Amino acid sequence: MSMQQHKSIAVIGLGFVGLTTALGFAEKGHRVFGYDQDALKRASYQSGCVPFYEPGVEEALRRQLDKRFLLCNSIALAVQQAELIFLCVGTPVDEVGEMDLSSLIGALTEVLRCVSKDRFYGIAVKSTIPPGTMREHLIPLLLTEGFELGTQVGLAYNPEFLREGSAWNDFLFPDRIVTGSADDRTGRLLEEAYSLFQAPYHRVSPTSAEFVKLASNTLLATMISFANEQAMLAEKIGDIHIPTIFNLLHTDRRWSGQPAEMSKYIYPGCGFGGYCLPKDTFAFQRTAEKYGHRPKLLNAVLDINRDVMESCIERIVAKLGNLDQQVGILGLSFKPGSDDVRGTPSARMIELLLERGCRKIAAYDPMAMSAFSKHYTFPVTMMASVEELERSSDVVVIATAWEEFRTKQHVFDLNCVIDARYLLEDRGDNCNAQPILTNKSTPDVRLI
Ligand SMILES: NC(=O)c1ccc[n+]([C@@H]2O[C@H](COP(=O)([O-])OP(=O)(O)OC[C@H]3O[C@@H](n4cnc5c(N)ncnc54)[C@H](O)[C@@H]3O)[C@@H](O)[C@H]2O)c1
């Protein structure tokens, strides 16, 4: 192991996240300088006591205190000795959901006033922040304070995914490490510091890194609210044992495997379709209303399914030069691996495009063209291949995630593709930030 990997690190804010981060890095061999503005907290840590319950953390404090973890009585002392600085201060929200960034901005300003101008510091924000904060607040602050990004100081966002109760283990053995650095030097420093962890490492844009943290937590919150809405509905219907319902849902094999097949359902596209999901969600919404329960989440699920197709149509129309140009639809079945076209999003897409005045629509599907022609009477010209569709169309829309379309990526002029299933690696118009850079191959995400 090269000595270069061992860094001098400062951690500012030593709460659940900061203390765990500081001790975790110390445990990995880095030299860590910790500072918290709360003098009582510092005194407690200095005596080897952690004032909150987090298994493994107090033991780690006692192992590392005054060895590789040094408590500092000022932010300046912590910062001056470090090459990489992690900001782990709190970012609470107010009653209207506005995140209070004052501690973070305060801490960053203090850090910037402590750095000496003759060497480089990488600053990594670990506090949870809304997407766009780096771009709109933190980078401008750095410039206002007279720094040039990437020369004297650099900035990155490095979301933390640890869970209270298992913070120590989660920090040392993370599912993945995500960093979004605004400059390359900070990106490299972080990569070296984290190279001591055996975890998949992903470099994304700063805004993607901010986004994934909130997406991760709101996904969990949504699943909890789904379960609670179902339980409230079951109470109204009666004669339903709700723990049994959820235990039965947990036996679905789609929850297991690596990645679990359920991940196919947590992937964006142009909406769900087919014979079952739309019909059954609609019917369940009606059942709920009959029993006097307004199923807010189910209503939102159906609304979003309509909205996402509308948004897809807007993107297609915006790309067309005029309504006489040809739109080529790739995929007619409701999902890959099936020729079922009942309730397929492609049919709704074609219907809406015709309503908007599009006059030339062509399509290709590896399996579902004859089923589609039997089922629907839309004026659509069927093409013999992806290549033929691409050659004759002005805008191509990937509407079903057939593997064939991914493998024929080279055929497309990406400026003319709407990848409505987020299937292609280089996604043409969908890609306004750099794609994920990973030290592991991207997992195969086959879509519904
Ligand atoms: N708690 C979690 O499970 C968790 C998990 C992932 C991410 N996060 C995010 O990490 C951040 C920190 O969370 P936490 O639970 O550790 O918060 P916390 O309130 O426990 O700790 C924040 C610490 O920062 C200190 N602080 C504030 N301003 C400071 C300054 N200018 N200089 C030095 N110290 C300062 C406070 O005294 C406090 O000890 C938040 O943005 C949170 O959303 C939390």
Automatic annotation (TrEMBL):
An example GO BP is: UDP-glucuronate biosynthetic process
Where is the chain membrane-spanning? none
Q: Which Pfam families match?
A: UDPG_MGDP_dh (PF00984), UDPG_MGDP_dh_C (PF03720), UDPG_MGDP_dh_N (PF03721)
Which InterPro entries does this one have? Answer: 6-PGluconate_DH-like_C_sf (IPR008927), NAD(P)-bd_dom_sf (IPR036291), UDP-Glc/GDP-Man (IPR017476), UDP-Glc/GDP-Man_DH_C (IPR014027), UDP-Glc/GDP-Man_DH_C_sf (IPR036220), UDP-Glc/GDP-Man_DH_dimer (IPR014026), UDP-Glc/GDP-Man_DH_N (IPR001732), UDPglc_DH_bac (IPR028357)
Q: Keyword NAD on this protein?
A: yes
Q: Where is the active site?
A: 276
Residues binding NAD(+): 36, 41, 91, 128, 164, 279, 342
State its Enzyme Commission number(s).
Answer: 1.1.1.22
List the catalysed reactions.
UDP-alpha-D-glucose + 2 NAD(+) + H2O = UDP-alpha-D-glucuronate + 2 NADH + 3 H(+)
Binding residue positions for substrate: 161-164, 213, 265-269, 273, 335
Keywords in alphabetical order, please. NAD, Oxidoreductase
The pathway entry for this protein reads as:
Nucleotide-sugar biosynthesis; UDP-alpha-D-glucuronate biosynthesis; UDP-alpha-D-glucuronate from UDP-alpha-D-glucose: step 1/1
Protein family per UniProt: Belongs to the UDP-glucose/GDP-mannose dehydrogenase family.
This chain belongs to the protein called UDP-glucose 6-dehydrogenase
Q: Which organism is it from?
A: Paenibacillus prosopidis
Q: What is the lineage of its organism?
A: Bacteria, Bacillati, Bacillota, Bacilli, Bacillales
